Amino acid sequence: MATVVALDAGEWNDLHPWNKRVVAERLFHAACGLVYGKNDAPKSPEPKSAVLTDGELVIDFAGGPLYTLDGDEPREFELVWEDGSVHAVSGRVEGDKVVIRVPWRKPTSIRYAWSNAPGRGLLCSGKGMPVPPFAMPIE
């Protein structure tokens, strides 16, 4: 099974991406990997861990150095607390990690691009492959 990310291929108010070529190319590379075992296609970075120490949350990614599609700071992150409340935060990129200042109490999990139309400060690899939306517990 394979999944491709299309967060960067459409409009905020339309489910169907306008940039169908980029979606088709990503699907083609994913299919080549599944059918022919080719592993040379660019892949989206994926989160490996989220560790909180000294008031900073460090999210480590597999897939090389990170950038943002718009050159802004990484956004679209939400800290989630035990009671279910949520707080939107931004961070900074340090190589293959994102570092987020945790404002006050200790969150239980972190979410990324967890909205209907995420669009500002979206993370990507050096080859422009966007990070997929995720939710993960904080260690």
> Helix count?
1
Q: What is the typical, i.e. mean, pLDDT?
A: 90
Helix content: 10-25%
Shape: globular
Poorly predicted segments: none
Using only CA atoms, what is the Rg?
16 Å
Q: How far apart are the termini?
A: 28 Å
Give the total of beta strands: 10
Following the backbone from N to C, one meets helices and strands in this order, namely HEEEEEEEEEE
TL;DR?
The chain is mainly β and 139 residues long.
Task: Please provide a written account of the structure.
By secondary structure, this protein is mainly beta. It contains one helix and ten strands, in the order αββββββββββ. The strands form three sheets. A four-stranded antiparallel β-sheet has the order 1-2-7-6, with no helix packed on it. It has a four-stranded antiparallel β-sheet with strand order 5-4-8-10, with no helix packed on it. A two-stranded antiparallel ribbon has the order 3-9. A hairpin with a 2-residue loop joins β6 and β7. The longest helix is centred in the first third of the chain and has 17 residues. The mean pLDDT is 90.
